[in-house]
Specification:
The chain has 8 helices and 9 strands. With about 325 residues, it is α+β, with helices and mostly antiparallel strands.
Length: about 325
């Protein structure tokens, strides 16, 4: 608010100056009209018009001058805007170039990418007493740190020195449990076991310290064995197009994500069963007509399943 005072003062000053000039112009116009004065040999009514127009021009000029006098920003905007735009464009270009150079340089040193799992997850039964939940979660935290540090040593990262016995860590773990229970309970998954997965909070580069955060999911049944996950309509009698493969994959992955399958597990080897996919696409080339290419779960899928395999089949269209 204090930083806005100069601007507020400038607006008030301009308003007052404009009001004074408008008042003077009104009085002059009134006197011209009463005394039927003329200017440059014009008739009185035209003289009054000239006075009114001149007053308006004077108001505009006075407001502009007041702004120029009262604000360096306004002076810059009036007289140096082209130069400023050129400088902004130059700085933006430099920033883009530097960012690209930094990314190129650091890409060779990325040890762990953002959201990658750094240890196995754990499933916590949220119906048992909270003290027992916290004890299990604390044991898991220490195991996750040990596992992550083995990876850290191999990838050139500094070890994580956190321990669950630290009071701050204990408080953080308890808060993680409570927030996850409340969150998934509000979504209708009250009492459902929770999967906690330690993942990298951002890209970790060689020389960084190993660290992780917990991502959580309700560990409920998502798909039954051979249950349809996604499909696309397709014409037979021809090879499948790459764009159609990408569309089916996109729809399947979107459906899994919406159902609650953990995003870190979407990387290979998760995906389509290659043998069943090749069989379905080969069958497509031999038949004609309208069909559906359907992706179905192979096995029952829970978040703790970690990896998923989708069978692909060619089925009659609707």
């Amino acid at each position: 608010m204090v930083a806005d005072l100069p601007g507020i003062g400038l607006i008030l000053a301009i308003t007052i100056v404009a009001g004074v000039i408008a008042y003077i112009g009104d009085r002059v116009g009134h006197q011209v009209g009463r005394k039927r004065l003329t200017l440059f040999g014009l008739r009185p009514k035209y003289t009054s018009t000239v006075v009114a127009v001149a007053t308006g021009m004077l108001i505009a000029l006075s407001v502009t001058l007041a702004a120029l006098i009262g604000s360096s920003v306004v002076r810059t905007a009036f007289f140096r805007i082209g130069q400023l735009n050129a400088q902004i464009n130059q700085l933006q270009a430099q920033a883009v170039a530097q960012q690209g150079e930094l990314q190129t340089t650091r890409n060779n040193n990325i040890a762990v990418t953002k959201a990658s799992p750094v240890a196995q997850g754990v499933v916590i039964d949220v119906t048992i007493p909270e003290a027992q939940q916290l004890r299990l979660f604390s044991q898991f935290f220490d195991d996750a740190v040990r596992t992550a540090n083995i990876t850290a040593a191999r990838l050139g990262l500094l070890p994580d020195t956190s321990r669950s016995s630290d009071p701050q860590v204990q408080a953080s773990l308890l808060r993680e449990l409570q927030e996850a229970r409340d969150h998934f309970g509000s979504l209708g998954d009250r009492g459902v076991p929770l999967l906690f997965l330690p993942v990298a909070p951002n890209n970790l580069f060689r020389g960084d310290r190993m660290t992780f955060i917990f991502a959580a999911w309700a560990d409920r049944r998502l798909y039954g064995n051979n249950e349809e996950v996604a499909s696309i309509d397709i014409e037979g009698g021809r090879p499948i197009a790459p764009s159609e493969v990408r569309l089916l994959e996109s729809r399947a992955f979107d459906a899994l994500a919406k159902a609650g399958f953990p995003y870190p597990f979407f990387a290979p080897p998760s995906g389509f069963d290659p043998q069943r996919f090749e069989s379905a696409t080969a069958a497509l080339a031999r038949v004609k007509g309208h069909f559906r290419l359907v992706a179905r779960s192979e096995g029952v899928l829970y978040p703790h399943t970690s990896l998923f395999v989708l069978g692909v089949s060619l089925e009659a269209g609707h």
